[in-house]
# Entry
Amino acid sequence: MRWSRFLVLPAAKSQPDFLLSVPAGEDSLAHRRHVCARLIPQSRDSLVELLDIKEIFGRIAPLHVDLGCGDGSFLCALAQRMPDKNFLGIERLAGRIRSAARKAAGLGNVRLLRMETSYAARYLLPAEAVETFYLLFPDPWPKRRHHRRRIVTPDFLSSIHAAFRKNGIIYIATDHLDYFEKIKEVARSNPAFAVADLDIDLPPSRFALIFQQKGAPVHRLALRKVSPVQ
Ligand SMILES: C[S@@+](CC[C@H](N)C(=O)[O-])C[C@H]1O[C@@H](n2cnc3c(N)ncnc32)[C@H](O)[C@@H]1O
# Structure
Protein backbone atom coordinates (compact mmCIF):
# COMPACT_ATOMS: atom_id res chain seq x y z
CA MET A 1 0.00 0.00 0.00
CA ARG A 2 1.29 3.44 -0.87
CA TRP A 3 1.05 6.08 1.79
CA SER A 4 1.05 9.81 1.34
CA ARG A 5 3.86 11.51 3.15
CA PHE A 6 2.38 13.77 5.76
CA LEU A 7 -0.95 14.47 7.27
CA VAL A 8 -1.86 17.96 6.40
CA LEU A 9 -5.46 18.88 6.75
CA PRO A 10 -6.33 21.94 4.80
CA ALA A 11 -8.62 23.89 3.38
CA ALA A 12 -9.34 24.29 -0.27
CA LYS A 13 -11.59 21.48 -1.42
CA SER A 14 -9.94 21.50 -4.82
CA GLN A 15 -6.64 20.33 -3.29
CA PRO A 16 -5.82 16.93 -1.81
CA ASP A 17 -7.04 17.07 1.76
CA PHE A 18 -4.37 15.13 3.57
CA LEU A 19 -0.69 14.79 3.30
CA LEU A 20 0.18 12.84 6.38
CA SER A 21 -0.51 9.17 6.82
CA VAL A 22 -3.40 8.76 4.50
CA PRO A 23 -3.47 5.71 2.28
CA ALA A 24 -3.39 6.64 -1.38
CA GLY A 25 -6.82 7.02 -2.89
CA GLU A 26 -8.51 7.81 0.40
CA ASP A 27 -8.26 11.55 0.27
CA SER A 28 -11.96 12.23 -0.19
CA LEU A 29 -13.92 14.57 2.06
CA ALA A 30 -15.76 11.59 3.55
CA HIS A 31 -12.43 10.30 4.72
CA ARG A 32 -11.62 13.51 6.56
CA ARG A 33 -13.63 12.50 9.63
CA HIS A 34 -11.48 9.44 10.12
CA VAL A 35 -8.10 10.77 9.21
CA CYS A 36 -6.75 10.82 12.74
CA ALA A 37 -7.27 7.09 13.12
CA ARG A 38 -5.08 6.53 10.10
CA LEU A 39 -1.81 7.96 11.30
CA ILE A 40 1.18 5.93 10.31
CA PRO A 41 3.51 4.66 13.02
CA GLN A 42 6.34 7.04 13.75
CA SER A 43 8.91 4.51 12.65
CA ARG A 44 7.92 4.80 9.01
CA ASP A 45 10.43 6.46 6.71
CA SER A 46 8.10 9.35 5.97
CA LEU A 47 8.37 10.57 9.54
CA VAL A 48 12.07 11.18 9.32
CA GLU A 49 11.98 13.30 6.18
CA LEU A 50 11.92 17.06 6.33
CA LEU A 51 8.55 18.60 5.55
CA ASP A 52 8.35 19.89 2.02
CA ILE A 53 6.68 23.15 2.89
CA LYS A 54 6.14 24.26 -0.69
CA GLU A 55 4.46 20.97 -1.58
CA ILE A 56 2.35 20.97 1.55
CA PHE A 57 0.95 24.45 1.05
CA GLY A 58 1.16 24.53 -2.73
CA ARG A 59 2.93 27.86 -2.60
CA ILE A 60 5.84 29.72 -1.09
CA ALA A 61 4.85 32.16 1.66
CA PRO A 62 6.16 33.10 5.11
CA LEU A 63 5.51 30.22 7.49
CA HIS A 64 3.93 30.60 10.94
CA VAL A 65 3.82 27.56 13.23
CA ASP A 66 1.52 27.11 16.23
CA LEU A 67 3.08 24.57 18.59
CA GLY A 68 0.40 22.69 20.53
CA CYS A 69 -2.36 24.37 18.55
CA GLY A 70 -5.16 22.69 20.53
CA ASP A 71 -8.53 23.13 18.86
CA GLY A 72 -7.07 25.50 16.27
CA SER A 73 -9.06 28.60 17.33
CA PHE A 74 -6.00 30.82 17.48
CA LEU A 75 -4.37 29.31 14.39
CA CYS A 76 -7.44 29.75 12.22
CA ALA A 77 -8.25 33.25 13.47
CA LEU A 78 -4.71 34.33 12.66
CA ALA A 79 -4.75 32.57 9.28
CA GLN A 80 -7.91 34.45 8.38
CA ARG A 81 -6.25 37.74 9.26
CA MET A 82 -3.14 36.98 7.24
CA PRO A 83 -4.10 35.13 4.05
CA ASP A 84 -0.70 35.88 2.53
CA LYS A 85 1.08 33.65 5.11
CA ASN A 86 1.14 29.90 5.60
CA PHE A 87 0.01 28.49 8.97
CA LEU A 88 1.00 25.10 10.32
CA GLY A 89 -0.59 23.81 13.51
CA ILE A 90 1.15 21.01 15.38
CA GLU A 91 -0.78 19.10 18.00
CA ARG A 92 -0.50 15.62 19.45
CA LEU A 93 -4.11 14.92 20.46
CA ALA A 94 -6.34 13.45 17.77
CA GLY A 95 -9.55 15.01 19.09
CA ARG A 96 -8.05 18.49 19.05
CA ILE A 97 -6.59 17.96 15.60
CA ARG A 98 -10.10 17.02 14.43
CA SER A 99 -11.56 20.20 15.94
CA ALA A 100 -8.83 22.24 14.31
CA ALA A 101 -9.44 20.52 10.98
CA ARG A 102 -13.11 21.45 11.11
CA LYS A 103 -12.20 25.09 11.73
CA ALA A 104 -9.56 25.04 8.99
CA ALA A 105 -11.87 23.49 6.40
CA GLY A 106 -12.48 26.79 4.62
CA LEU A 107 -8.98 28.17 4.95
CA GLY A 108 -6.53 27.56 2.14
CA ASN A 109 -3.49 28.66 4.13
CA VAL A 110 -3.78 26.27 7.11
CA ARG A 111 -2.29 22.81 7.49
CA LEU A 112 -2.23 20.52 10.56
CA LEU A 113 0.29 18.02 11.67
CA ARG A 114 -0.45 15.49 14.40
CA MET A 115 2.91 15.17 16.04
CA GLU A 116 5.00 15.83 19.14
CA THR A 117 6.11 19.43 18.84
CA SER A 118 9.66 18.82 20.04
CA TYR A 119 10.13 16.06 17.48
CA ALA A 120 8.64 18.12 14.67
CA ALA A 121 10.71 21.15 15.54
CA ARG A 122 13.89 19.16 15.74
CA TYR A 123 13.54 16.72 12.86
CA LEU A 124 10.78 17.77 10.46
CA LEU A 125 10.95 21.53 10.02
CA PRO A 126 13.50 22.58 7.41
CA ALA A 127 16.24 24.99 8.40
CA GLU A 128 15.41 28.68 8.05
CA ALA A 129 11.80 27.94 7.11
CA VAL A 130 9.80 29.62 9.86
CA GLU A 131 9.02 33.30 10.29
CA THR A 132 7.05 33.02 13.52
CA PHE A 133 6.37 30.36 16.15
CA TYR A 134 3.60 30.52 18.73
CA LEU A 135 3.77 28.51 21.94
CA LEU A 136 0.60 29.38 23.80
CA PHE A 137 -0.10 27.80 27.13
CA PRO A 138 2.17 24.78 26.82
CA ASP A 139 1.37 22.10 29.40
CA PRO A 140 3.10 23.35 32.59
CA TRP A 141 3.71 19.97 34.26
CA PRO A 142 3.67 21.59 37.71
CA LYS A 143 4.98 18.62 39.71
CA ARG A 144 8.74 18.71 40.07
CA ARG A 145 9.18 15.12 38.97
CA HIS A 146 7.34 15.97 35.75
CA HIS A 147 9.38 19.05 34.85
CA ARG A 148 11.42 17.07 32.37
CA ARG A 149 8.24 16.71 30.28
CA ARG A 150 8.06 20.45 29.70
CA ILE A 151 8.58 21.49 26.09
CA VAL A 152 10.86 24.46 26.62
CA THR A 153 14.39 23.18 27.15
CA PRO A 154 17.78 24.31 25.83
CA ASP A 155 17.48 21.64 23.10
CA PHE A 156 14.05 22.86 22.11
CA LEU A 157 15.29 26.44 21.75
CA SER A 158 18.18 25.21 19.60
CA SER A 159 15.74 23.38 17.31
CA ILE A 160 13.58 26.47 17.03
CA HIS A 161 16.63 28.54 16.27
CA ALA A 162 17.65 26.29 13.40
CA ALA A 163 14.14 26.36 11.93
CA PHE A 164 13.89 30.15 12.09
CA ARG A 165 14.49 32.51 9.25
CA LYS A 166 16.60 35.55 10.00
CA ASN A 167 14.97 37.63 12.75
CA GLY A 168 12.35 34.94 13.39
CA ILE A 169 10.26 35.40 16.50
CA ILE A 170 8.53 33.12 18.98
CA TYR A 171 5.59 34.27 21.07
CA ILE A 172 5.14 32.40 24.34
CA ALA A 173 2.32 32.66 26.86
CA THR A 174 1.66 30.74 30.05
CA ASP A 175 -0.45 31.12 33.17
CA HIS A 176 2.16 29.21 35.17
CA LEU A 177 4.65 31.55 36.85
CA ASP A 178 7.19 28.89 37.78
CA TYR A 179 7.31 27.60 34.19
CA PHE A 180 7.53 31.17 32.92
CA GLU A 181 10.57 31.84 35.10
CA LYS A 182 12.16 28.65 33.84
CA ILE A 183 11.47 29.62 30.22
CA LYS A 184 13.14 32.99 30.80
CA GLU A 185 16.12 31.26 32.40
CA VAL A 186 16.49 28.90 29.42
CA ALA A 187 16.18 31.85 27.01
CA ARG A 188 18.74 33.94 28.90
CA SER A 189 21.27 31.13 28.67
CA ASN A 190 20.98 31.06 24.87
CA PRO A 191 22.75 34.09 23.35
CA ALA A 192 21.16 33.35 19.96
CA PHE A 193 17.88 34.81 21.26
CA ALA A 194 17.00 38.28 22.46
CA VAL A 195 13.84 39.44 24.19
CA ALA A 196 11.61 41.12 21.61
CA ASP A 197 8.78 43.61 21.56
CA LEU A 198 5.44 42.19 22.69
CA ASP A 199 3.43 44.98 21.17
CA ILE A 200 1.34 42.84 18.83
CA ASP A 201 -2.39 42.27 18.61
CA LEU A 202 -2.93 38.52 18.53
CA PRO A 203 -6.35 36.85 18.61
CA PRO A 204 -7.11 35.02 21.88
CA SER A 205 -6.53 31.29 21.91
CA ARG A 206 -9.04 28.98 23.60
CA PHE A 207 -6.89 28.76 26.72
CA ALA A 208 -6.26 32.50 26.73
CA LEU A 209 -10.03 32.97 26.96
CA ILE A 210 -10.31 30.38 29.72
CA PHE A 211 -7.65 32.10 31.84
CA GLN A 212 -9.10 35.51 31.05
CA GLN A 213 -12.51 34.38 32.32
CA LYS A 214 -10.90 33.04 35.50
CA GLY A 215 -9.06 36.33 35.95
CA ALA A 216 -5.77 34.41 36.08
CA PRO A 217 -2.60 36.33 35.27
CA VAL A 218 -0.97 35.43 31.97
CA HIS A 219 2.77 35.80 31.45
CA ARG A 220 4.03 36.58 27.99
CA LEU A 221 7.40 36.63 26.33
CA ALA A 222 8.63 37.16 22.78
CA LEU A 223 12.07 36.00 21.69
CA ARG A 224 13.81 36.99 18.50
CA LYS A 225 16.52 35.04 16.72
CA VAL A 226 19.61 37.15 16.64
CA SER A 227 22.44 36.70 14.20
CA PRO A 228 25.79 35.77 15.67
CA VAL A 229 28.21 38.66 16.01
CA GLN A 230 30.66 38.48 13.08
C1 LIG B 1 -3.08 24.02 27.42
S1 LIG B 1 -3.33 23.53 25.79
C2 LIG B 1 -3.16 25.03 24.85
C3 LIG B 1 -3.79 24.93 23.49
C4 LIG B 1 -3.70 26.21 22.64
N1 LIG B 1 -2.33 26.57 22.38
C5 LIG B 1 -4.41 27.33 23.31
O1 LIG B 1 -3.74 28.27 23.76
O2 LIG B 1 -5.65 27.28 23.37
C6 LIG B 1 -1.80 22.72 25.38
C7 LIG B 1 -1.91 21.99 24.07
O3 LIG B 1 -0.64 21.53 23.68
C8 LIG B 1 -0.74 20.18 23.30
N2 LIG B 1 0.55 19.59 23.59
C9 LIG B 1 1.17 19.49 24.78
N3 LIG B 1 2.36 18.93 24.66
C10 LIG B 1 2.51 18.65 23.34
C11 LIG B 1 3.54 18.05 22.60
N4 LIG B 1 4.65 17.63 23.17
N5 LIG B 1 3.37 17.91 21.27
C12 LIG B 1 2.21 18.33 20.68
N6 LIG B 1 1.21 18.92 21.33
C13 LIG B 1 1.36 19.07 22.65
C14 LIG B 1 -1.83 19.62 24.15
O4 LIG B 1 -2.38 18.45 23.61
C15 LIG B 1 -2.81 20.77 24.17
O5 LIG B 1 -3.70 20.74 23.08
Notes: Residues 1-6, 9-43 have pLDDT under 50 and may be disordered. The domain at 10-225 is CATH 3.40.50.150 (Rossmann fold). The CA atoms of residues 192 and 230 lie 13 Å apart. The two ends are 51 Å apart (CA to CA).
